[in-house]
Predict the 3D structure of the following.
Amino acid sequence: MLEQQIYSIESANINQETLAAMKNAGAAMKAIHGKMTMEDVDVTMEQLREQHELTQEIGNAITSMPITEPIDDDELESDLAALEQEKLDEQMLRTGTVPVADALGGRALPAVETGPGKNKVPVHEEEEDDEEKELRRLQAEMAM
């Protein structure tokens, strides 16, 4: 029975402390809310909603406007074609040379007269020199 009395006293003490804490909390909340009314809260919440909507509108305006010019598909295709042609040209240059005899299947080329022909029109020496230079250059390339 003594234990029951001690338990009751402790319980009453806890209840008293709880009630005092609740009174203090109520007073603190009253001081915090002071002059605040529900009307003030509604006005503040409405202002926040308006600002949030404005922020969303600004974000939508910024993201919907393209920053760069639209991409021209024809220009991209022509650039791609130029790059492919460049790559093909590089591959052609790396293939090396094919001896003329191999290209003809081992057959020899027919003999050609190297001197002046009967019906040939004389060519200016400058043009002939240029043609000979070009021929020598081509022969050198093929011999590589």
